[in-house]
Amino acid sequence: MTTPVIPLNPGLVAIIGARGSGKTALADMLAAGCDSISDEAWSAEEWANPSFLVRARPLVGQGKVQVSWAAGEPSIRALDGSDANGPFSYERVRYLSQRFVEELCSSSGLTDGLLREIERVIFEAHPDHARDGALDFAELLEHRASRHRLARDREAEAVS
Fold first, then answer.
1. Are 39 and 84 in contact (CB under 8 A)?
2. N-term to C-term CA, the chain
3. 150 membership: H or E segment, kind and range
4. For the chain, the helix, strand and coil percentages under 3-state DSSP, each to the nearest 5
5. Nearest 5 degrees, angle CA 103-CA 45-CA 109?
6. What is the pLDDT of residues 101-137, one digit of tens each?
7. Minimal CA–CA distance to 97: which of 4, 27, 11, 13?
8. Are 140 and 126 in contact (CB under 8 A)?
C-alpha cells in the first residue's frame, strides 16, 4: 500500500473515494483485522463471494493487516483468512459491506438480513444488566414476552 498507516476515528461510518480507488479492499482489510468477516464469508465460493479478500486470495499471498487499538494489543491477521475467527477472537467492529447495505436498502421489503440487523441493534441497545441473562435477541424476546403470553392464555381460559 502507498500509505502503510491510516489513522481512523472511533465510530468510522464510511469510506469515501472514487470508483476503483480501493474502498472495498480497504474496508475488507480493516474487517479482517477486526475479526469482522464471518466464517461463512471466508469459506464461501470465490466466484460468488462478496468479500474482496476472498476473491483476491491468489493475489494477497502472505499479506497481513495490523490494527492498533487505543487500548490493548494490536491485532494482526492474514489477508487470506487463514487465521480468522480463532477461539479467542471476537468481532471488534461491525462491518456492513456495500452489498449488505444495498440489500438492506432494496425495495424487496423486509429481508432476513435486515431483520437480523434490527434484532442485533435492539439487543445491543440493552445494557448487559438489563438483558436478563439472554445471550441474543431471541432469548431476550422470549423472556420478555413469556409473561404476556401466560397472561393472555389465562385470560383466554377465563373467557372460555
1. yes
2. 72
3. helix 137-159
4. 45, 5, 50
5. 15
6. 777 777 666 677 778 878 888 888 888 898 889 998 9
7. 27
8. yes
The domain ranges of the chain are 1-92, 106-160
| Confidence at residue 132, expressed as pLDDT on a 0 to 100 scale | 86
Pair 78, 62: CB distance under 8 Å? yes
Distance (Å, whole) CA 2 – CA 84: 25
SS3 124: helix
Distance CA 43, CA 40 (A): 5
Q: Rounded to two decimals, what is the model's pTM?
A: 0.65
> Cα separation of 121 and 100, whole Å?
15
Amino acid at 28: D
Residue 125, C-alpha cell as written in the block? 441497545
